[in-house]
Amino acid sequence: MDRVKATTLREMKERGEKIVMLSVYDYPTARLAEEAGVDILLVGDSLGNVILGYPDTLSVTMDEMVHHTKAVSKAAKRALVVGDLPFMSYQASVADAVRNSGRFLKEGGAQAVKVEGGRNVLKSICAMVDSGIPVMGHLGLTPQWIHQFGGYKLRGKTSGTARMIIEDAKTLEKVGVFSIVLECMPWELAKLITDEIEIPTIGIGAGSHCDGQVLVLHDILGLSGQYPPKFVKQYAKLDKVVAKALQDFRREVKGGKFPTIKQSYEIPPEEKKKLLAELKQRASS
Ligand code: KIV
Known about the structure:
The protein has about 280 residues and is of the alpha/beta class. The chain has two domains: about 5-235, Alpha-Beta Barrel (TIM Barrel), CATH 3.20.20; about 240-285, no CATH class. The chain has twelve helices and eight strands. An eight-stranded parallel barrel has the order 1-2-3-4-5-6-7-8, surrounded by seven helices. It is elongated and about 95 Å long. It starts with 5 loop residues before the first helix and ends with a helix. The chain binds 3-methyl-2-oxobutanoic acid.
């Protein structure tokens, strides 16, 4: 079983094999994704909203990201593990960018990092690539920029913004980024970019012409506790299954139906006899 590498993805694009990526955050779900043959396990900064209960991704820290990346890396055998650089871990300085992306590889066990932005964060991206760190780009709706964008909105609807995104994609390819996530943009724009560059594009809300697709595991399993965005397809509705299991457990504990003898341990009969005899003798002396 050959490990998926940053360099393998380009070969997949060349032979027209779609790339499957999932955002996961812990060992048990990463193990299931690995067993299902998912190519890339992204430890996304969506960790903030999906797992940690934050309103958005902006307050996620490097320590939180590294902690979860360690767990995901332990489950990954074939899949490429990508750590997502959180807000302000690469924007303030090039030194921050190199040090923090290095932490994903040294401490987290990831093989690559993802960074939101194009020419606006180019110095940081170039320094990471020059340090030997494989970098995945992220263009379109970049959630770390929501306050500048005025919310979670489709990007690249006008010819001006579409042109900027195309230029960003070409620039990222030129400086050695190995793949680019295209989030929430018209499918025509994602297709133009995918046809224009040789590195693979991985879409989320960007139509079917990208070289791969990424979604958040909790969204596709129906576990995110909210109405999913238009671009999500739910492959299961686990929230209902989990809710029923938890209600059943509560009811059985309250009603004295759990545990039964099946879930209990017993003293071996000989030892039980001895113990009862000893207790009886002690009580009568
Ligand atoms: O944080 C994340 O999970 C992501 C993906 C949805 C692309 O950035």
